[in-house]
What does this fold into?
Amino acid sequence: MKTRINEFAFKLANANGTGSASANSLIMQAIFRMGIPVAGKNLFPSNIQGLPTWYEIRVNKQGHTARTATFDLMVAMNAETYARDIKEVPPGGWVLYDSSWPLTLSMLRDDVTFLGVPFAKMCAEAFTQARERTLMKNIMYAGTLAALLDMDMQIIDVMLKEKFGKKPALMESNKKAIVLGYDYAKKHFECPLPIRLEKMNATADSILIDGNTATALGCLYAGVTVAAWYPITPSTGVLDAFTAFCAKYRTDKKTGERSYCILQAEDELAAVGMIIGAAWNGARAFTSTSGPGISLMNELIGLAYYAEIPIVIVDVQRVGPSTGMPTRTQQGDLMTCAYASHGDTKHVILLPANPAECFYFAQNAFDIAERLQTPVFILTDLDIGMNDWVVPRLKWDDSFKPNRGRVLTAAELEALPKYYRYSPEDELGVAARTLPGVHAKGAFFTRGSGHNKLGCYTEIPDEYQEVMDRLTRKHAAAKTIVPPAIIERHEAATFGVVTIGGCDLAVREAMEQLRHLGLFGDFMRVRAFPFGEDVEEFLQSHSTIFVVEQNRDAQLKSLLTLETRVSKEKLRSVIAYGGFPLQAKQVVDIVVPHLRQDVAQEAGQ
Amino acid sequence: MSYIKKPAVRHPSLQANALGLTVRDYEGAMSTLCAGCGHDSVTAAIVRAFHELDTPPHLIAKLSGIGCSSKTPTYFVSGAHGFNSAHGRMPAIVSGAAAANRELTYIGVSGDGDSLSIGLGQMAHAIRRNVNMLYVIENNGVYGLTKGQFSASADVGSKSKKGEANTQSPIDPIMLALSIGATFVARSFSGDKAALVPILKAGIRHKGLALVDVLSPCVTFNDHEGSTKSYTHTRKHQLPVIEADFVPRRSPIETSQAPGTVQTVTMHDGSVVRLHKVAADYDPTDREKAWSFLHARAAAGDIPVGLLYIDEKGTEMHAGNKTVAQPLSQVPFEQLCPGSAALEALQQHYR
Ligand SMILES: Cc1ncc(C[n+]2csc(CCOP(=O)(O)OP(=O)(O)O)c2C)c(N)n1
Ligand code: SF4
Ligand SMILES: [Mg+2]
It folds into this structure.
């Protein structure tokens, strides 16, 4: 086989709860430190122990790090899934397996190379405790992979020191396992394989981080002081990280006093209620949840919208409806978030594509929410939230001052003859708010019931409509302050492609593959709702537009037809919603026949 | 609803309090509840309690859910910040508000539907969290605003206006609160302002959640013969267990009562509640004994009233969280944002 350097993928098949996760991320991190673009996708079950779990690692010197469709090497460590794992390897590929027990003959193939290492046997000989034997098997295959793929052992050494420097016993056994695995491979196989790694310099200015951590960091830097939540996969990591950051940066070293309050609520109804209360009272506050939580929050989201209270809701999407597949990814909450709650409601949604955008959008979300005095959603997904991504190092400008929107100070209130909550409005359609306790003149009655522009209770049609119409203007004004779409045009383009969020990398890769086929298109990734003029203009300027998204009902496409001037006929859906991150192949396979059909039709006319 | 202007709630002397404010200054908009509704009497007691405590109106945050009872914050302290939220969700909203600013005085007004049906979970968890607030349930055994359906506090056998008897066992907020660690539990009757006002005052001063269940008859849907939440039934069956006196900080404490029947509890700010034991063997600081006593009396058909349980040593939400003294909403951004150098350093861990 031809040598392929820094351009291959491998998959690790394990059983859940056996400690494979730390070995897998060690491998991934080592490749990252070798300066090579890399991505790891954890395909895990909704289970604590025992069920099969896979980890996919793709290295690609061109930077294509979306999920890939083919894996050159299968690390088959779970006998239960041997059959399907072995079947998945393309001809010419490799299977690394535990040869402590023989493989079932029927599973053997003669078009792939089997690399047997007696991991269990070696562990039984080298280690005495049962748990250690299970755990060290993982680190041992990491050692084998290091030899097979030519990983930098020095880097691995440093990483082990960082991790276990303070725990010499653990350090010792990990080291031992790595070396055993490494030496076995060197002795029994021709190392390295034709697919192998070589140091590059593509990640020096990058970090390896998951979206949930980055979101939490954005909230921290935005100045959030109150967070409320109810645990739910895949969003739990946001609050775990936020809690850890607050413990580190917001706790007085001497007194132990905290300049934050994190409330673990009894459910999502309460979680959103708490942040509404906190935001009403002047704190920056957020909650983080997933689809089922959004469903529960609906009623109070309407309250925050109508009473104009600036809250931020992070939705790390998973596969729905109902409990769905809680450990799989999807973009199925777009519609429900866009119009969450009963009656006429419309919200602002930010759509990050990767952990770096999670950080910047999270930080920005609070400015937008407070400027517009309205709920802002940050829609990420399990793939962005829970997987480690290579992204450019995060930057912070120390001159940043949060934009708290229109909030009257005691002095401003003192100078006012009389204060009314919902008028006069500014060019964004926003009226000044006051915070409880600041000044006697600022007191008013916040209500979810019908109110007029003065903030008084009303049941009069015109007065009610006047306020609702202003809320429409406010939502439209959001277009001017949300992040613009990312648009990349090609001079020979004959079609457009629109996508959102975590589809970004797969779609870009697909478009490159299309270019190799002579099919040129323009690219647009929408980064917020409502859609700005840039989105309108892109849609107007193409007659064929593919809308790529990860849900069954083409929710982005629907939203575009509802909320822009685009004619429905121009839009074609490219959807994949089975629960795994999108692959370029899935896009190419749908787009190519469409375009070829168009060409054929034109030719026939 | 009655649109006839009712006589304004008026303190006999219209005396100014320490802030120079009269009772008038603690009133709110004109009530739109039915004439004779128990809730209006609770409103009047709240007005008096805040006036007598000299609380600056704009430092009061008054919140509620949905229901006739939840409308009442409009009718008291118009100078306070108000929030009429959603059905059963007031406890969470107060929790968040209190998290953001620990300096304001919080009062949450709710109904038996709002707190014992749709909002039961939120009420229970606010109690567990021990949010620093006065939590008033205006309890009438029915959903007033949706026209008289039984609520979860309706007693077995209590009859609806149409004569149908309730068969489901009631949720008693007092017993529930005691069993989940509430630190201040009281029951009173809207028709007995003299007893209610000191309880409200003590509840406002209590550090933590003060639950006050006020029997507050609904004249329109639940004040008839056969209802156990009517004025007549409540008057007849209420059993004063503890009568509370609230003595603000620095006032001399007189002891006119025979020793042994009065128990005093000093509150966080130095105020004192004097608890006159009407039932001699009752101890309002012993949770287990209080629970057993109340349980037995309720089973016998009595309605025990008074400041039934108080624990000034409980851990209030912010104490549990070790929150800084300054309200979180006022901590300057510079203290909240770790800055670029910290971000740079932190990112070494993500290499
Ligand atoms: C989600 C929701 N469901 C139902 C209602 C209708 N509703 C309004 S008030 C109420 C009951 C109020 O009863 P209670 O809290 O006892 O107050 P009361 O009117 O008796 O004082 C109901 C069911 C609502 N507002 N919101
Ligand atoms: S319906 Fe009942 S609870 Fe509602 S205002 Fe009338 S008397 Fe009061
Ligand atoms: Mg009621």
Observations:
- Chain B has one domain: 23-321.
